[in-house]
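Run: sequence + s-citryldethia Coenzyme A -> complex structure.
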Amino acid sequence: MANDSLTVTDNRTGQTYELPITDGSVRAMDFRGMKVSDDDFGLMVYDPAFTNTASCRSCVTFIDGDRGILEYRGYPIEQLAEQSTFLETAFLLVHGHLPNAEELRQWTHNITHHTFVHENVRHFMEGFRYDAHPMGMLMSTVAALSTFYPEARNVDDPASRELQTWRLIAKMPTLASFAYRRMRGFPYVYPDNDLSFTGNFMSMLWKMAEPKFEPDPVIERAVDVLFILHADHEQNCSANAMRSVGSSEPDPYMATSAAIGALAGPLHGGANEAVIRMLEEIGDPKNIPAFVDGVKKGERRLMGFGHRVYKNYDPRARIIKRHADEVLNLTGTNRLLDIAQELEQVALSDDYFIQRRLYPNVDFYSGIIYQALGFPSEMFPVLFAIPRTAGWVAQWRELITDPEQKIARPRQVYVGERQLDYVPMDQRG
Ligand code: SDX
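>> structure
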């Protein structure tokens, strides 16, 4: 487009500046030159929670919030959910292209043969309290992996980055299932390399006395599709944590542990757990009007609704809802789904939510499926973290190899006191 630039006049000085526009953005550093005197620091741009700030240039995931579009490396999420598998999608996110047959065979082999963890990790987990939340166990044990692989701190070595990529994607289901088995007081089940990535996860979760676990194909496919849908989502809160911590160049286990901490929050990946608690609190469709009134008064949030980017329906919610129906046909419907569907209808027809463009997001229905599969709600964000590890690693690799990136260190607008004199204790109020 002709004249891709912004002309800014600083009314404090009358000076005019020409700022180039590139890919729909201007550089924040171009504002630093706008000064009122030579010793002026220059202008900053203030953007709490980064609601309109691009932290990086990325090729991993594209989202159009108004059109409800989500693409991984340019491929629409609807096509990947329909035709791909999680492992193939993880390769796409990490390596930037769909694998050919040999690449997929090698990738599957490498991931499959890194599913075991050091026996000390098992002992480490025994240190947690009996009622430890599995997200706390996962975050801690992923950070502990850092102590087993000291070579991982060589973040500039492509071979080391690839090896840690395999380890992180492969070991997340093992650590998650160990946390689940510990919650239940069941013995740990070790990986079964004959099974698919998702089938093996199911085996480590649910195998008991039978000699070999046989995954139900409908559930295996539904969980694999959930993993595809949760694999990445551009610069969400946890991806930002992965990049911010990763920018000081610790090993990727420490950065991933930070990302897990960000995901655990109820406004992010912890929302699916919060959705179930909300539905259980509502308890009966007849209580929905009173609950919605409380939301409108600002006393509650409608968990599983709303999104920073999607201001129309989250495309993932639509796909998950279809699989929720299939899983519930198998497991038997439950009252929470009945309440969820009634709540969705009420919310989608109510001006309060329509005006605020609050639609169901990915977490609204995923919790229903996980609950129908018998997972305790504490496990729901753990089930989010497993596939999102592929996205976090893809974002981290892009950060490490981006020549424009350096250690993340935001500025601030200081509004506190200045130049105070120290007050001796006997003179304080
Ligand atoms: C995920 O970023 C990602 O991509 C995340 C994610 C991913 O894949 O990584 O998509 C996964 O985290 C999905 C979101 C899961 N969280 C929830 O479902 C929790 C409930 N939703 C929210 O708290 C909220 O909608 C957020 C956090 C998701 C988004 O919040 P924003 O964009 O910061 O919006 P906001 O808080 O500024 O709210 C705007 C208005 C406010 O009303 P007013 O003060 O202007 O009157 O909408 C209201 C909010 O009060 N609002 C809600 C609401 N969400 C926003 N009111 C009731 N219920 C809600 N859920």
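>> summary
The mean pLDDT is 94. Residues 1-45 form one domain.
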